[in-house]
Amino acid sequence: MPARDGALTPAELSVRALPGLPEIAAGDDLAGLLLAAAGDLADGDVLVVSSKIVSKALGLVADAADREDVVRAQSVRVVAGRRTPRGFAQVVESVAGPVMAAAGVDASNTAPGTVLLLPADADGEARRLRRALRAAGAPRIAVVVSDTAGRAWRTGQTDFALGAAGLVVVDDLRGSLDAGGQPLEVTERAVADEVAAAADLVKGKASGVPAAVVRGLAAFVTDDEGPGASILLRDSGSDWFRYGHVEAVQAALGVPPGSVEPPSVLPEPLSHRVRRAVQVALVGGFRVQVDVAADGAGCTLHGDAFACGAVGQRLLVALWAEDLRGELAADGYRDGRLEATVVTAPG
User: Fold this and answer.
1) Do the domain assignments include residue 100?
2) In whole angstroms, what is the distance from residue 286 CA to residue 282 CA?
3) Which residues form the Coenzyme F420:L-glutamate ligase-like domain (predicted)?
């Protein structure tokens, strides 16, 4: 583990792109091509390589016509799904490990009609690449395989470490003291992700430069291969945001995945949103008829008292997932009916 006294923090850092790499194809000697492009690698450098060229060298190509099927096959579970003008978009837990859009299946900078898949074991690929580089004469360096993802609560994308070898991926400062002498209790610097993000400032999809060298982090470069970037993934016990808010509500109400149309990223009529909430509320076999007002501002539930009460409460929860708020009639159930009002203000 790294020292806890701040001695590992570099005073200076440099990042340089590696231009001149040819188009990578299946079976290419990626280590040899990277070593030739890198030139003067030094002991302690970190070589950051886009997952895209790793996937190309491995031949991880699929037909773009079957993209939704490919994304499904590369997904462990769906976190959130929305309809967009371009089709159905999903954020999923990928076979490769991270939670990301479309399981990392990517159509950019690939041959027309094809998509690229992420390597299933990016840490393993980083280790194999590092060994091949060392065998070809590279000094003691670390390797980070990077990819791009969005982030909860933040607009835009940034690169992160999909795989890593020979690098301290987390600088655990818990138990050390800050500059004011106060103990640090939660600070764990995600060094590998910070390295990947820094490298992306000089490489990227638009520039066609898929690799970079970060210099100045020799204190984080290790002789052994290390645990890899997979230790940065949260387990289910520490994942507070395991589902999108719509999916969390539907899961709690027992709605089978995929059985209800997902919301759209574009504005939808109130009546459409309310009918979707009613569909969610009725899951479970309740014998209740629900009439939705033409404008969506109210519902009438018909059935016995217990069923109407149960569906009414479920409807209030389902409306919340639509960013709506509902109210049940103040005088409650009468004459086999229960009235529900939809308040359009966000819940």
Assistant:
1) no
2) 6
3) 21-216
52 shares its domain with 147: yes
- Which three-class secondary structure state does DSSP give residue 327? strand
Q: Supply the pLDDT for residue 108.
A: 85
pLDDT, tens digit (0-9, with 9 covering 90-100), for 14-58: 999 999 899 999 999 999 999 999 989 999 999 999 999 999 999
Count other Cβ atoms within 10 Å, centred on residue 298. Answer: 17
Domain CATH number, residue 127: 3.30.1330.100
Q: What residue ranges of the chain have pLDDT lower than 50? A: 1-5, 347
Q: pTM (2 decimals)?
A: 0.87
And the tokens for 274?
Answer: 């309310």
Maximal CA-CA distance, the chain:
85
Is 198 found in the same domain as 141? yes
- Check if the beta carbon of residue 290 is closer than 8 Å to that of residue 301: yes
**Cα–Cα distance, 244 to 145 (Å, whole number):** 28
| Calpha distance 95→103 (Å, rounded) | 7
140 and 185 share one domain: yes
Instruction: Answer yes or no: do 173 and 253 share one domain.
Output: no
d(CA 167, CA 127): 11
CATH number, domain containing residue 323 = 3.90.1150
Q: In which residue are the tokens 């940065």 written?
A: 232
Q: Are residues 197 and 266 in the same domain?
A: no
Which residue range(s) make up the domain with 272? 245-343
Q: What are phi and psi of 186, to 5 degrees?
A: -130, -5
